[in-house]
Amino acid sequence: MSCDRPDSQRELVRIVDLHKRFGALEVLKGIDLTIAAGEKVSIIGPSGSGKTTLLRCVNWLERPSSGQVLIEGQPIGERHFKGRRTDMRDRELARMRARIGMVFQRFNLFPHLTALDNVAVGPIKVLRQSADEARRQAMALLEKVGLAHKRDVYPEMLSGGQQQRVAIARALAMRPILMLFDEPTSSLDPELVGEVLTVMRQLAVEGMTMIIVSHEMQFAEDVSDRVVFMDDGRILEQGPPKSIFRAPSHARTREFLRAVIERQVFPATA
Amino acid sequence: MNGPWVRTAAQFPYLLDTLLLGVKITIIVTLGGFALSVVLGLGGALFRTSRFGVLRAAGTLYVDVFRAVPVLTQLFIIYFGLAEIGVKLSPVPAAIIGFGINGGAYLTEVFRAGIEAVHRGQTEAALSIGMTRMQATRVIVLPQAMRVILPPLGNFVIGLLKDTSVASSVAAPELTFRAHMLVDQTYLSTQIYLMVAVLYLAMSLPLAHLVRRLERQTARERPA
What we know:
The structure holds 2 protein chains of 2 kinds. Chain A is an alpha/beta fold. Chain A has helices at 51-58, 90-97, 115-125, 131-144, 160-172, 190-205, 217-223, 241-246, 251-265; strands at 11-22, 25-36, 40-44, 66-71, 74-75, 78-81, 84-87, 100-103, 178-182, 210-213, 226-231, 234-239. In chain A, the strands form 3 sheets. Chain A has a 6-stranded mixed beta sheet, with helices on both faces. A 4-stranded antiparallel beta sheet of chain A has the order 2-1-4-5, covered by helices on one side. A two-stranded antiparallel sheet of chain A has the order 6-7. In chain A, a hairpin with a 2-residue loop joins strand 1 (11-22) and strand 2. In chain A, helix 5 runs parallel beside helix 6 (190-205). Chain B is mainly α. Helices cover 83% and strands 0% of the residues of chain B. At the A-B interface, helix 2, strand 8, helix 3 and helix 5 of A face helix 5 and helix 6 of B.
């Protein structure tokens, strides 16, 4: 990192010519994308356009067919040695994933652990913190997402919005340098969406680097530095939210935005 | 003329003591076989659910072979067959190994079903916070799989307890073997086998109770 560049320009994620095939179906058809430290990037696009797959390739939950993902300049998932690619060792991959938080559409909280232990289990098992220390920090994170009073409750007793907030706290407990959000509000009842977005907004303000796949267009416009529009496995256009939402250059983008915004303004007709 | 019931009463302490010696061996074979079954079953299940084709194939082969051959045949091969190539096992270790390998094949499928019943998202969430695959399996997947595993596991251990009677065929001096001996000595077959039945009941009923309690506890502590 050179000294004359401010930290906000430092490159955190670089995605290079990423392809992903599921059998005969090519879901990603060559994605190039660079994300700077502290940047908030929203990925929007019709369902099936490859947004979620792209996000899942960033922490190698999905293994790309070809191409590379670099986190702070280091390729994730594979080692490149003498021109040959080999799989990264499981432990090494885990160490990289530990610094990349992920929030899932279906929350995926651990049902056999209390809210507090859902947050503390990562630091205990992965960072080898003492249980006391990890629980103390987990408590602070539950407070941050407004759920300190639910510490001893199991996930099944929490509402969807509460579960998702615990899931965010669980990811934050690993002190990530990057947070991935995979449609974090898509399985929530409409009245619970706000509480999750509030927590995400706060994270954004604190300077977290975030990649968000979402259908919440208003949120994307408010919070993102950049909006990326994907269609059919490609990035069709990207830019500041104002220009994407107010003056999209592609017909496909206009079509998509019209459909989505209509649905969000008049949800009864959806 | 002394009737068989009167003779049984007269010899009762001797009969009971002898059978209790057998009970001890039955318990040893059951516990040993169970422990080995769990270890092999867990390993087998991890193979069967592995990302690597070779391991999956090995796991499948193990299950197919050992589930398809009667346990008695396996015991004979381990006890008599291995002796021919110089591996001489005493009856009790031979029985433990036989029941362990056979039970491991059965439990492989039980554990596999349990592991596969846990939603994929659980593993993904565990990986996403930096756990290795082994950690994800151990800390996140297996505890949840226990809910699915426990009922068939309980059935298995009670079945195993009864099946150890087969070990009498390789001269392991367990309960049924002792009973055969006593019957040969005294001809009190009805009375002795009734005692044997009561002794098996006395072992399996508490076991069944214990399994049910564990199931309830698991259901309470780990809500899905």
